[in-house]
Amino acid sequence: MRFMVIVPANQESEAGVLPDQEILTKMNAFNEEMVRAGVMLAGEGLQPSSKGARIRFNGGKTTVTDGPFTESKEVVGGYCLLQARSKEEAVEWASRFLALHGADWEMGMEIRQLDDPV
Q: Residue 102: its pLDDT value, please?
């Protein structure tokens, strides 16, 4: 089963501020562990929403709204695509990622299973 782990943006990521070097080192080591375990298929952080756009289609017309977007809690800051045997296993890996940060991460993350191709 494949799962998308959706990491919300925060004020720092929306300002273009990367995590400190200690956290980045821990994250890279953990990502390498997930790749070696055959769990991580892909994953990256995203640029701030100020560099993005939202596209809507209504009444036959396309509307493009450039960022930034005001509600950072509604903006995706990064993602990870996991291959796991169960939702519980995906939750375990995602929980370990959160623990790397060593502090409360109130915004949490969302895990959603991908539909299998028919």
A: 65
Instruction: Tell me which amino acid residue 55 is.
Output: I
Residue 13 has a pLDDT of 86
**C-beta separation of 51 from 66 below 8 A:** no
Tokens of 72: 């950072």
Q: 93 near 34, Cβ under 8 Å?
A: yes
As assigned by CATH, the class of the 2-113 domain is: alpha beta
Q: Residue 8 burial (CB < 10 Å; 0-12/13-18/19+)?
A: middle
State how far the Cα of 33 lies from the Cα of 38, in Å rounded to an integer.
Answer: 9
Domain ranges of the chain: 2-113
Using one digit for the tens of pLDDT, what is the confidence trace for 74-85? 789 899 999 999
